[in-house]
Design a protein that fits this description.
globular, single chain, two-stranded antiparallel ribbon, disordered N terminus
Length: 308
């Protein structure tokens, strides 16, 4: 039996196994739905389970071979060419809920999807509900859904919440290679027209402004874009599969784009990302240094490592 789409193909000869798999996913989802709403398609759930099965199977080889591909890149490469669609989580007339979409990705949902798959597989699980649990922990402040304000809208929040839960850690560059940046997060409350829910609700604007105030004030360090073209020896703290968070000089923002670090055969750093320019998930052929120079608002990078 076969399920086919323009971006995904899954084939299984054992129809009974496939039916049992669907029933298992269905009943797990019913249990989760009683506790917290989740939106997804059957295609999403099948895709997650199949990817997890491949990841768990490949895991022993990754641990035993020097220079083996990290788990994050294993999953990221399997999502390549999926279409880029921006703001897939922005809603205006629905209760905040966990949304799963492996077929329309923006830069943040791509990173979240890959990290949730990696965390699930690294714990030896192929279960759909375990994947949902990791995704919720990554996407929401301390892993709890409590309205629109509880989502990690700013990537600095995402890093802070992930670090508190020991899901990720920031790789802080040495002072000789980095510069400080004080977080001042105001963009959402100052641009409510860009967010459907904020555009129509003054109360939600107030809650977001309070969240921004709590998330601001910390000083972080980033590698300025002029130094990102350095050799692998100089940038040795950056590993394949680390999350690259691109800093910006836009007022009220901290991070404008995210993806995964890939050291290319040219010895330079590249970015595997859901690209709004190329309209799909790609390994950017330009070096990360070249990419940053083409965007005047990009100032440099922060580096975050998933703790698998």
């Amino acid at each position: 039996m076969k399920i086919t789409s323009n971006v995904y193909k899954w084939e299984m000869t054992d129809g009974t196994h496939r039916l049992l798999l669907f029933i298992l996913i269905f009943f797990h989802s019913l249990i989760l739905l009683r506790a917290q709403p989740v939106s997804y398609t059957r295609q999403d759930s099948f895709c997650v389970v199949e990817l997890l099965a491949k990841g768990v199977k490949a895991l022993p080889k990754m641990g035993s071979r020097e220079g083996a591909e990290p788990l994050t890149l294993f999953f990221a490469r399997r999502l390549m060419n999926r279409p880029y669609v921006g703001r897939t989580l922005e809603i205006k007339d629905k209760e905040e809920h966990l949304a799963v979409n492996l077929f329309s990705l923006d830069c943040t949902t791509f990173v979240e999807t890959v990290c949730a798959l990696s965390l699930t597989a690294s714990h030896g699980s192929q279960r759909w509900d375990d994947y949902l649990s990791w995704l919720r922990k990554l996407r929401y402040d301390n892993g709890k859904i409590d309205g629109y304000k509880s989502r990690n809208h700013y990537f600095s929040q995402w890093i802070q919440s992930g670090a508190r839960q020991r899901l990720v850690r920031e790789v802080v560059p040495p002072a000789s290679l980095s510069v400080p940046m004080k977080l001042s997060l105001t963009y959402m409350s100052e641009h409510p027209q860009s967010y459907p829910l904020l555009k129509q609700s003054m109360e939600e604007r107030r809650l977001i402004a309070e969240m921004e105030k709590r998330a601001s004030g910390a000083t972080v360090r980033y590698i300025p874009k002029e130094r990102v073209g350095e050799s692998k020896a100089v940038l040795s703290d950056i590993k394949d599969g680390d999350i690259i968070a691109i800093t910006t000089n836009k007022k009220g923002l901290d991070i404008s784009h995210v993806g995964f670090a890939v050291w290319g055969e040219d010895g330079k750093l590249h970015l595997l990302n859901a690209s709004s320019i190329r309209r799909k998930v790609v390994l950017e052929p330009m070096t990360l240094y070249e990419y940053l120079q083409k965007h005047p608002t990009h100032t440099g990078i922060r580096v975050v490592r998933p703790l698998l």
